[in-house]
Design a protein that fits this description.
The chain has 166 residues and is of the alpha+beta class. It contains 5 helices and 6 strands.
Length: 166
């Protein structure tokens, strides 16, 4: 049996209105991305990317989206993402854009990158704090950013440096 290799594209939804992020759904993101691929690359690009394209994860509060596509066609997907200009959900259109943060071979590498990215964002927030209470809240959030290591069968920790060889 043949294993199909995939790429995972980690994106963030950038919007001027923070309320619009709470209203988006994974179906709306998938349709908007497919529409952008069709506009940019035509029927060929749409057919290539639609083979195993799915929205694997959507966090509406943080605006984080994880998209999966075949390894051979992830460049078509990435080149079409800047052309997503609006998301339609519940019969309303929300103007926004998708910012590509990371492209990885596994969901785990995307998770690791997202933790580091959030940690950097929290450090920037820490520098902009105005009073001591805000500073303590941000420091608490910063210390809680971690990915728990899974224990293997033998009890040893798994050593993964995130390097993909395909």
């Amino acid at each position: 049996m043949v294993r199909f290799k995939n790429r995972y594209v980690l994106c963030e939804v950038v919007s001027e209105d923070p309320r619009c992020r709470q209203c988006i759904e994974d179906r709306a993101v998938g349709l908007a991305v497919r529409e952008a691929i069709g506009r940019v690359h035509g029927d060929y690009g749409l057919a290539c990317c639609s083979i195993s394209f799915t929205v694997k994860y959507l966090n509406a509060y943080t605006g984080t989206v994880l998209l999966r596509c075949r390894k051979d066609f992830y460049r078509l997907l990435c080149s079409a993402l800047p052309f997503v200009r609006q998301l339609e959900s519940r019969a309303q259109r929300y103007p926004c854009s998708l910012n590509t943060l990371h492209v990885g071979g596994t969901i785990r590498t995307c998770q690791k990158f997202l933790i580091q990215y959030n940690r950097r964002q929290l450090l920037m927030l820490l520098q902009n704090c105005t009073n001591e209470e805000e500073r303590r809240c941000v420091q608490k959030s910063l210390l809680s950013c971690s990915l728990t290591e899974e224990q293997s069968q033998s009890g040893d920790e798994e050593d993964d440096d995130g390097i993909e060889t395909d």
